[in-house]
Amino acid sequence: MKAAVVRAFGRPLVIEDRPDPVPGPGQVRVRVEASGLCHTDIHAAHGDWPVKPSPPFVPGHEGVGLVEELGVGVTHLSVGQRVAVPWLGWACGRCEHCRSGWETLCEQQINTGYGCDGGYAEKMLAWADFAQPVPDGVSALDAAPLTCAGVTTYKALKVAGVRPAQLVAISGVGGLGHLAVQYAKIAGATVVAVDISDEKLRLATELGADLVVDARKEDVGAVLKEHGGAHAAVALAVDEDSFAAVNSGLRRGGKLVMVALPAHGTIQVPVFDTVLNGTSVIGSIVGTRQDLTEVFELHAAGRTRVIYETRPLDTVNDCVDEVLRGEVRARIVFDLGAAG
Ligand code: NAD
Ligand code: ZN
Ligand code: ZN
């Protein structure tokens, strides 16, 4: 089987021919149909973060495909069933986080495409308990971006506690942001989308944003304040300065939800304003299996639109460059047989 492999940080990925992986107990082998390119995969391939993966590894945590072989003990999935293999590849199920509905905080978790091989491949392994069944009516190509970009932004809005009639800023309308805009609208909010690209701001409007702000030309915090300040701001732009910009546009009691993970990212939070205004800064990491179930249900019900461009896996290095240049409309999805 063909796989795109990170052999060294910051080097082009290498397309390799590898033997089909064999599922261990509790695992399944998936024949991948579609696999999304999340900006996280680029951070992984560059070794951007304090906790690094170990090359060689296969990135990708938006892999969707058909179960091809069941490992010992797997009884709830069947061969031929469509599943998605998210970032949360495995969690212990026993710790306080797992038991309290926060499996995404499990300290023993294994992350797909980071701690084990991921979806940039024709075949991949998944732990059956964390392989998410994809409902009928959700195509593999749509399911792929929902598997990370969808669940992550859906969860971020839950964490922010967004309610109808609130003002919500979505900073960065890329793979994640184009879905965040839609979930914020579904929650009933008035949505302000922020980006630095005309094309992405146009897309945000098309997807329901009530107001768009071009961070190249406008003072994001000031614009938000003119509208009374944001009840919540979701930071999805891979640019640490953008975090402080939206933070300065919160209304009293507002929440900044940090999601993007720029390399070496730090932000300055003014103590006085934060205390006096009672604002919060919260981190949010992907979403649980239940969150992903809800994301798929919303999509099956026709309530979200996934915007993607398909590419062959062997163009992966060009695709990475396109994402870094900000040229991708929302998401690139590698088509590994979804069309056929
Ligand atoms: P992306 O490249 O598709 O989108 C980033 C967007 O930010 C682009 O539209 C870009 O034009 C915009 N942008 C850049 N600078 C900006 C600025 N100053 N102001 C406003 N917008 C700006 O990336 P993505 O796949 O959506 O991922 C975004 C980030 O989220 C990455 O850092 C990724 O690693 C991270 N991520 C985090 C989680 C999590 O669970 N916390 C999950 C998935 C991805
Ligand atoms: Zn991701
Ligand atoms: Zn756990």
Task: Describe what this molecule looks like in 3D.
This protein has 340 residues and is α/β, with parallel strands linked by helices. It has 2 domains: 2-133 and 307-335, Quinone Oxidoreductase, Chain A, domain 1 (Alpha-Beta Complex); 150-283, 3-Layer(aba) Sandwich (Rossmann fold), CATH 3.40.50.720. The protein is built from 10 helices and 17 strands. The protein has helices at residues 39-46, 96-99, 140-160, 175-186, 198-206, 220-226, 240-247, 271-277, 289-300, 316-324, and strands at 2-5, 14-17, 27-37, 63-70, 82-85, 88-90, 110-111, 123-127, 132-133, 167-171, 190-195, 211-214, 230-235, 250-258, 280-283, 308-311, 331-335. The strands form 4 sheets. Strands 3, 4, 5, 8, 9, 16 and 17 form a 7-stranded mixed beta sheet that branches. One zinc ion (ZN) is lined by residues 38, 40, 61, 87, 148. The site of one zinc ion has 8 residues, from α2.
Write the layout of secondary structure elements.
Elements: E1 2-5, E2 14-17, E3 27-37, H1 39-46, E4 63-70, E5 82-85, E6 88-90, H2 96-99, E7 110-111, E8 123-127, E9 132-133, H3 140-160, E10 167-171, H4 175-186, E11 190-195, H5 198-206, E12 211-214, H6 220-226, E13 230-235, H7 240-247, E14 250-258, H8 271-277, E15 280-283, H9 289-300, E16 308-311, H10 316-324, E17 331-335
Parallel strand pairs: 10-11, 10-13, 11-12, 13-14, 14-15, 16-17
Antiparallel strand pairs: 1-2, 3-4, 3-8, 3-17, 4-5, 5-9, 6-7
Helix pairs in contact: 3-4, 3-9
